[in-house]
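Intended use. Records like the one below are meant for learning the mapping from a protein sequence to its folded structure. Do not use them to infer anything beyond what is encoded.
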Amino acid sequence: MKYWLHRIKHCKKVSYQLFELGYLTIGFSDLNDEKIIKLALKDQKKEFNEICKENYIKTIKQSNNLWRFLTFNKGDIIIVPQDKTFTICEIIDDIPKLIKEVYEKFENHLNAKDIKLYEDNKIYKNNDLIDLGFARKIKILHKNINRNEYLDENLKSIMKIRQTNVLLDKFQSSIQNTIEKLKSKKSI
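Structure written out for the chain above:
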């Protein structure tokens, strides 16, 4: 089990609706293909990066965000920062899903009836692309937690990073302490 921070950055309105329905998402709709998932799961990073470069992903840093997201493991703990709060969830799937798989399961639950899946397997709202390509099934463990009440200074600081996702294993004990405090409802 690893600990991660994953920031919801793309298409927040739809991303947060899917989050409430048990899916964590990331952009990269131009790479929305099972081949990219298979490369990540087989640890074929060179080929993965070549496809990313062909699809105009300008930096390795950007492709690394997708790589990390696709290689989250079942049981990994994900901290999702939100304004002054955060949510702790757990990855409960074995492999990532394409956004079309998530859309097909939840199209009736999305609050915008004008969101449609097109033939290119991307989702659109009023013909404008919603740049979401992949999703992970999650279980929300603790939701909308006040940062000031439950996080130590190190975790508060890491919540400010702008990067989409980052490994938090060096903060494992702080995260576990936070989870224990949440279970017993004791703030810092």
